[in-house]
């Protein structure tokens, strides 16, 4: 795992998708390290200990203003995968 892995946060209304598209809503419990205009750095705790991730967000991201440095937050995102 790379310490500066980028993951896009997607908070959007899900419309009907083709049968071939699979999506799954996930939640990530994190502690905010820092926040910039389009990215947020967070720490997560997993089986291998603590790791830091950089997440991208845009104007469609909801409640990003609540993510203050040092706070614990839950990030909900939609992970999409396609088959076929």
What does this molecule look like?
This protein has one domain (5-12, 22-82). 0% of the residues lie in helices and 55% in strands. The chain contains no helices and five strands. It has strands at 5-8, 21-35, 39-46, 49-56, 72-82. A five-stranded mixed beta sheet has the order 1-4-3-2-5, with no helix packed on it. Strand 2 (21-35) and strand 3 form a beta hairpin. The model is unreliable at 10-20 (pLDDT under 50).
- Cα shape: globular
Strand content: over 45%
Elements, N to C (H/E): EEEEE
| Structural class estimated from helices and strands | mainly beta
Unreliable spans are 10-20
Integer tally of domains: 1
Please tally the β strands and state the result: 5
- Helix fraction? under 10%
Largest sheet entry: 5 strands, mixed
Overall pLDDT score: 75
Number of helices, where a helix is a run of at least 4 consecutive DSSP H or I residues: 0
Distance between the termini: 27 Å
Radius of gyration: 14 Å
Q: Largest sheet, order of strands side by side?
A: 1-4-3-2-5
């Amino acid at each position: 795992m790379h310490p500066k892995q980028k993951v896009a946060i997607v908070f959007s209304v899900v419309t009907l998708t083709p049968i071939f598209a699979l999506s799954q809503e996930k939640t990530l419990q994190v502690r905010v390290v820092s926040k910039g205009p389009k990215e947020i750095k967070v720490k997560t705790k997993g089986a291998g200990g603590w790791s830091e991730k950089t997440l991208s967000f845009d104007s469609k991201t909801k409640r990003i203003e609540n993510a203050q440095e040092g706070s614990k937050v839950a990030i909900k995102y939609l992970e999409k995968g396609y088959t076929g």
